[in-house]
Amino acid sequence: MSVRYLSCGDTAFTVEFGNEISPEINGRVMALHAAIGLAQEAGEISGVVETVPTMRSLMVTYDPLSTSRAELQPRIDTLIARGLPVGAGSRRVTIPCCYDDPEFAPDLAEVAERTKKKPEQVIAAHLASPFKVYVLGFMPGLAYVAGLDQALFLPRRSQPRVRVPRSSVAIAMDMTTIYPFESPGGWHLIGRTPLWMFDKRREQPVFLSPGDSLTFERIDRKSFDRIAREVEAGTFDWSSLVKGK
């Protein structure tokens, strides 16, 4: 496996696995992220402050009073040489989504027209897409989720919205995402989930994590309203949506 090390100032460096965005490369990034954590727990690596996964590389920050890149890089090379179990321990997460209310899916008809499909076919393709969370970014809790059915590929909207409602489900390019807060946004809105991707009341405020496998489950407006009330009240059983790790 060919990797490249790049300096990021005097307390960090990145381990780069390739120049393209792919499930295989991102899988290696996440596997190294996990392997360094396990090595720290076992006392094999010390001085690492944080590892930050991106779509195709892992940034390693370290305490310069405890270690150095010269010490860490050979140890990371050893971890890579042992083999990185891609996909090991990843979670399988189900996201309920309502596509039926025009308020929730203002761009569904346009997406259907531009992709030469009927709205129901757009929904079916979104539901069947093999999604995976690559990284979190832009705002707390916003996941970049790749794997969208190629038949739905569209560029971002030419005119972004000033306000996108919280929990909107959107698509652009080969990705889908869920807006964790009301914010500006330029992706195509095709549905909404009653879930909050960020909730400071939870022990882990951010719901999705890099490496998660993701599927959407279609719900009607009645189910949406019921789940939304439970989420608002803090009584929703989040564990019912997660399998695996």
Question: Can you give a write-up of this model?
Answer:
The chain has two domains: 79 residues, Gyrase A, domain 2 (2-Layer Sandwich); 154 residues, Cyclophilin, CATH 2.40.100. Helix 3 crosses helix 4. The strands form three sheets. Strands 12-9-10-7-6-13-5-14 form an eight-stranded mixed β-sheet, covered by helices on one side. Strands 1-2-4-3 form a four-stranded antiparallel β-sheet, with helices on one face. The chain starts with a strand and ends with a strand. It is of the alpha+beta class and 245 residues long. It is elongated and about 55 Å long. Helix content is 26%, strand content 28%. The chain has five helices and 14 strands. Strand 6 and strand 7 form a beta hairpin.
Shape: elongated
Structural class: alpha+beta
**Percent range for helical residues?**
25-40%
Mean pLDDT: 94
